Design the sequence.
């Protein structure tokens, strides 16, 4: 039902009593729109920027997205999973580059993969899919100026015509990312807890082109990493044969964004620490000089919802560091959980929204902390012999018992809540410690003696009904 | 030097090249103005609200301020300490009310006191003092609309005339409290870390009048406390014979602001849990029904300063819960430390501001956490026998050795940094644990045997050059 009224200040007041407004047509906004439209709601999606499908993509400007099991479950529910799978590169493991050479670490034991795709490409395909829904109305170049939380009324400005409309929706979703306008509005409410924490370092990106034969310049189907204790280089394969090379440095210090600024600085940095990629990347290092330093932020807040009217979703309420590759997956999972809650409550938004926020919040706090820890792991531990031994032991346990799984496995290749994945990891940690305590374990890793010791440990777990 | 220029948009642009603007004429704003004026700076103090000295005070609306050593040190430096001491009530200890009766706990061993004063009275006297400085210009009803951080230019609106001025200052200080406009401006900078955390409970206040003879209705020179595990009542004496009675309840739950709302609810709450004050307070309980629920917030952020131009001070950068009585004291100490840093750097703001923020930040993080912990102590532990024994042991240690001091003592009766007070407490904790481990310690607390044991422990500390 649309009710157009004359309004003294803004010319037109549009009141929709059964229409949901989403602010932000990024990844999560588009996916949420499709989930809601599929459930029968009329959806208006307002995006401040122009339609990315009509604009040249900004190169060198975003870490690649990695999609995994929990992200795809949500995408499959709205029928776009397979389409997107085709546009991703499967990544089966990481290649660690150190001065001693390369070492490959598979992500899973059974050929499991995570799926890499550029943020821009993923956003365009999701918008294409959303635009095909007759219940979804995409409005680009529309800025949300203000929100009346109690009535779910928005003041929206068409940035092309300058015209301002008041729009009353049945519900408003803030899917407008880490710098969310909707959240800023909620932040002024009493009892709104909020924190934003910047990583004490930033990154710069450049695109390493495909070879002259159109091939990838490094092994594809893997993420390449050059850990250096307090800085690192990452390289993500793209479908077109290129790699996105992301250089993470602290802001200040001996080797930092403050000290490394000229072509020569970058050249000597690569010559000293990343020599195996130097000749390949040298012609492109000016891009590092020119490109901006990107920052990384963790955002935690609570509550995520206001009455039966307003809710935050995705990065707007839980921006996390990208190091566990879970940001988009968690945002897509939010959409699915929201709809599950709404269905369980038979469409009663007042009942469903608090369940949505409590179910997601506790899990997002955990993945936020895991993502921050994983940054340390990637930079510091990943090339370390004990860390590698630990990974080998995890794989061994997993081979000997099909139910045993690592934290990384449970986070990336299952849809179990992050709380559950962490709980299992805390229990599993004991097994790994018991194995690490075996004298000379590294040398007898493949001995029958160790196999039977592992089986006895696993059997004890079964006997005590502990999870693996 | 004042340079009035015509400005196309706002009519007048005032550029002051040697004048400091403070936003917020609350307690810290007024004290900072006096510190800066005394150092020779011209100061303009803009306050959005009207002059409190011309407005009726809002009754029942703020926890009493308790001033202590570190607050007075800053006030003495600007020559207003003694004036304010005369307007305070000295508080020598707390009276704990439980079903078993009353118990008095002195704050110090040597008659030390903290000093209680109403926020409104303190603000008025500080503004009176500031107004007498020829270098301080107080401007009430002036709202800060915007700040250009790079040029220290403010857009200020006179809320009476509606006129907007652009004002360029040499430095801008945000002394505008927990909901600081200046901080909101800084919050949009990249790499600004920020958190706001609300206490999961709120309070209501009422004023318990003086007796008909003008006397205090409860023992004055003490704070009265009725701890009840997850809620509590506090009563602070005022100079006019009244007491401010602050009722802290959780927001939700069996006994909470959600469940206690009518006169009858409050009556039965007091009858059940605070029976000794029931007859006195019963005639006034409607004020609890009418008065709003006040919330309590902890704010942490960093950085506090921007280049040589902008700085936050007081609650604007470190709002803390009031339970340790340190909020205003810490804010006044900020002013003193700022001036110390500036003098050490011979007036070089670019050098002094980073030193000011790093010196204060680490201490404020600690007192913020201590204040949150102290809420739990007040509600849960203060009536507890082990806690009381611990307090007795602390007093005993202090009596036997003049250098030993409790955390409360070091925070409230010295000016040592909070970091140092906490470090000493962590070491002292070991002594208390050793004493608590003595069998039957409670009964032989005053025996010569225990005295000599304590002295031997203290002697060991001296021998090992451990601090007490």
Sequence:
């Amino acid at each position: 039902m649309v009710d157009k009224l004359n309004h003294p200040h803004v010319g037109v007041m549009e009141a929709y009593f059964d229409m949901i407004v989403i602010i932000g047509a990024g990844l999560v906004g588009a996916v949420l729109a499709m989930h809601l439209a599929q459930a029968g709601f009329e959806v208006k999606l307002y995006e401040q920027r122009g339609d990315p499908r009509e604009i040249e993509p900004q190169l060198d400007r975003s870490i690649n997205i990695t999609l995994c099991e929990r992200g795809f479950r949500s995408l499959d529910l709205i029928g776009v999973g397979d389409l997107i799978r085709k546009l991703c590169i499967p990544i089966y493991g990481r290649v660690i580059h150190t001065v001693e050479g390369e070492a490959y670490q598979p992500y899973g034991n059974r050929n499991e993969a995570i799926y890499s795709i550029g943020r821009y490409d993923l956003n365009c395909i999701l918008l294409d899919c959303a635009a095909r829904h007759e219940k979804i109305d995409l409005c680009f170049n529309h800025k949300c100026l203000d929100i009346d939380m109690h009535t779910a009324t928005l003041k929206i400005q068409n940035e092309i015509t300058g015209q301002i409309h008041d729009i009353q929706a049945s519900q408003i979703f803030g899917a407008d990312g880490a710098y969310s306008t909707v959240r800023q509005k909620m932040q002024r409410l009493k009892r709104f807890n909020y924190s934003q924490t910047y990583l004490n370092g930033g990154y710069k990106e450049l695109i390493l082109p495909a070879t002259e034969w159109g091939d990838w310049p490094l092994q594809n189907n893997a993420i390449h990493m050059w850990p250096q204790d307090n800085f690192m280089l990452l390289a993500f394969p793209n479908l077109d044969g290129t790699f996105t090379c992301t250089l993470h440095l602290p802001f200040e210090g001996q080797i930092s964004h403050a000290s490394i600024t000229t072509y020569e600085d970058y050249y000597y940095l690569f010559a000293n620490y990343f020599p195996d990629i130097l000749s390949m990347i040298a012609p492109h290092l000016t891009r590092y000089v020119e490109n901006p330093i990107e920052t990384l932020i963790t955002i935690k807040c609570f509550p995520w919802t206001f009455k039966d009217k307003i809710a935050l979703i995705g990065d707007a309420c839980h921006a996390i560091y990208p190091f566990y590759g879970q940001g988009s997956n968690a945002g897509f999972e939010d959409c699915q959980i929201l709809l599950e809650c709404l269905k369980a409550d038979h469409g009663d938004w007042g009942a469903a929204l608090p369940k949505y926020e409590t179910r997601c919040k506790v899990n997002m706090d955990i993945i936020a902390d895991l993502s921050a820890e994983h940054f340390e792991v990637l930079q510091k531990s990943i090339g370390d012999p004990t860390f590698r031994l630990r990974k080998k032991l995890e794989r061994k346990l997993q081979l000997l018992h099909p139910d045993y799984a690592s934290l990384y496995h449970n986070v990336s290749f299952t849809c179990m809540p992050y709380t559950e994945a962490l709980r299992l990891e805390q229990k599993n940690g004991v097994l790994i410690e018991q194995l690490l305590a075996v004298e000379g374990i590294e040398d007898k890793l493949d001995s029958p003696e160790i196999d039977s010791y592992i089986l006895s440990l696993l059997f004890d777990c079964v006997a005590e009904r502990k999870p693996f």
